[in-house]
Design a protein that fits this description.
This protein is of the alpha/beta class. About 50% of the residues lie in helices and about 15% in strands. The strands form 3 sheets. The protein has an 8-stranded mixed sheet with strand order 7-6-5-8-9-11-10-12, sandwiched between helices. Helix 11 (about 305-315) links the parallel strand 5 (about 295-300) and strand 6 (about 320). Its EC number is 2.5.1.16. Belongs to the spermidine/spermine synthase family.
């Protein structure tokens, strides 16, 4: 009987409006993370700011809608739907411009994304907040409690559909602008249904015009804002994890993840290390007793696969790569020099989380390279003492951990580096640090640690001697890295990071908005992120 009732159920117009508003509001909330992240980062402050702003806007809409619910009508709900669709068109068309402008506002770094969230997603969420109290007023249910419960249930079901569909279906398969267009057209269609079957002239004409505005915004926005200071965008997509772009600037091809540089390739000389820090990945070969003893290497983080391919080709070792985002691996194969890994015996790729992989594998590694950090997006579960203990357990008795940490060598922006060094030093007998730039700016600091308690002290003299002996075998000269060896940091006050205490985001605070320098192998350097007055990357998928 219950199944027959469900099959026979036909929603009323107010019920349909509530369901669609739930789908759209939660879909926009999920979408907001992908729109905001390339400019402001995908850290907890961005996500928390989005939730705060959208819940506040929704609450304000509920309150105002409740005050006006006595005069509610399906036609007024139709206009609210159209108004929301118009603002979605604004988000599609002008999000790049609005993101760039709001990023110049003088705010503390952790609050920097709030103006963009408020401007882009506050108004449409506020308008959608009117729908629920209007629907409750127009409900055919008897009693305030029954009407409210019915509306809340329908709205929540819509939110579940919007959240699930956007997360698991739309973002992996469509671009941001296409998803926005879909939501906008869904709102327009609902607006027409609300005034059907009479279809009064003004709402009908307005619906057609709004639909045209949405289509023009989706088609015209990317074309107008497609001038990119970084070069020519040859590939761009939204993956389940991040925004991925491949950009050509003359002979240099760069992979951007959420707007940050991650790998670079000299198309004229693919074997060149465009970024100096990728040479430093060979530092473990100076700490090991014999290069030939290194049989198995693990990279946590693949990017453009510069390091993993270098190791696979240079050493007689099997290289395992844990890259959580399979789209990154696909881009490395198509746009960089990664050969089809399915046909190789010396390089294995696993699309999973690095910590989960280490928990589930029985493999013993001679070297583990941790290259999964971003400047302002650090997976905290890969930084803690519990993770370092797990990595140590998966290393051989004379195994070596290499961590690519992004921070400043000293000063306030060094807080994360100091904490990470202390955490590594808590587990490993010895740890050494190497800066990659002479500047005191935020940069790639390489921390190398050994599990061998009997290993010699690796001062500059020992490292230079081994470098002279092993340069040919390694294929790189690490004399520059040795010159950049840092003294042990004064980090006694730095916390040891633990799973039950999420301090990483606060430690990253001093780095927000600061200059991040990546040294190039030709002696130059590049800014790893755009200055505030530069245009943001196109958000079209």
């Amino acid at each position: 009987m219950a199944l027959q009732q469900v099959a026979a159920y036909r929603p009323t117009k107010p019920e349909l409006a509530v369901f669609v508003s739930g789908v759209t509001s939660m879909g926009l909330e999920i979408l907001a993370v992908r729109v905001i992240a390339p400019q402001f980062g995908n850290h907890i402050y961005t996500v928390g700011g989005i939730l705060t702003v959208l819940l506040a806007a929704l609450s304000l809409g509920y309150w105002q809608g409740g005050k006006r619910a006595a005069t509610a009508s399906t036609r007024e709900m139709s206009w609210l739907m159209l108004g929301t669709a118009v603002y979605v068109a604004v988000v599609i068309f002008a999000s790049d411009l609005l993101l760039t402008y709001t990023s110049t506002l003088a705010l503390p770094p952790r609050y920097a994304s709030l103006p963009a969230v408020i401007v882009l997603f506050g108004p449409p969420t506020y308008l959608l907040g009117f729908i629920s109290p209007y629907a409750a007023e127009l409900s055919q249910k008897r009693g305030t409690g029954e009407a409210s419960g019915h509306v809340y249930a329908l709205g929540t079901i819509g939110s579940i559909v919007g959240s699930g569909a956007t997360t698991f279906i739309l973002i992996p398969s469509m671009g941001i602008d296409a998803i926005g267009l879909l939501f906008g057209l869904m709102l327009v269609a609902t607006a027409l249904v609300l005034v059907a079957p009479s279809l009064p002239r003004r709402p009908t004409v307005a619906s057609v015009l709004v639909a045209l505005v949405l289509i023009v915004a989706a088609a015209g926005g990317p074309a107008i804002f497609d001038v990119d200071h970084r070069g020519e965008i040859v590939h761009e997509t939204q993956t389940p994890h991040q925004q991925l772009e491949v950009v050509d600037d003359d002979n240099v091809r760069t992979m951007y993840l959420d707007g940050a540089r991650h790998s670079a390739l000299n198309k004229d000389d693919p074997d060149e290390h465009v970024f100096t820090y990728t040479k430093y990945f060979h530092l473990p070969m100076l700490l090991t007793d014999e290069i030939d003893d290194v049989d198995r290497v693990l990279f946590v983080g693949g990017g453009g696969y510069t390091g993993p391919q270098d190791f696979a080709e240079q050493y007689d070792a099997t290289v395992d790569v844990v890259e959580i985002d399979p789209y990154v691996t696909d881009a490395a194969e198509e746009y960089f020099t990664l050969e089809d890994h399915d046909k190789r015996d010396d390089l294995n790729v696993y699309a999973t989380d690095g910590r989960q992989f280490l928990q589930n594998t029985d493999e013993e590694y001679d070297v583990i390279v941790l290259d999964a950090y971003k400047k302002d997006q650090v997976p905290f579960h890969l930084t803690t003492v519990e993770f370092m203990e797990l990595a140590s357990d998966r290393l051989a008795d004379d195994g070596i951990l290499h961590a690519n940490v992004i921070a400043a060598p000293s000063g306030p922006a060094a807080e994360f580096y100091h904490a990470q060094y202390e955490t590594i030093n808590e587990v490993f007998p010895e740890a050494y640090s190497f800066r990659t730039s002479d500047a005191n700016a935020i940069q790639n600091i390489q921390v190398v640690a050994t599990t061998d308690e009997s290993a010699p002290a690796f001062d500059e003299g020992v490292l230079e001697s081994r470098n002279n002996e092993r340069t040919e075998a390694m294929g790189v000269d690490l004399s520059g890295a040795i010159d950049n060896k840092l003294d042990e940091p004064e980090s006694d006050d730095a916390p040891v990071l633990r799973d039950d205490r999420g301090e990483v985001d606060s430690l990253l605070d001093p780095m927000f908005g600061q200059r991040y320098v990546i040294e190039e192998s030709d002696g130059g350097s590049v800014e790893a992120e755009a200055e505030p007055d530069e245009p943001a990357a196109s958000l079209a998928g």
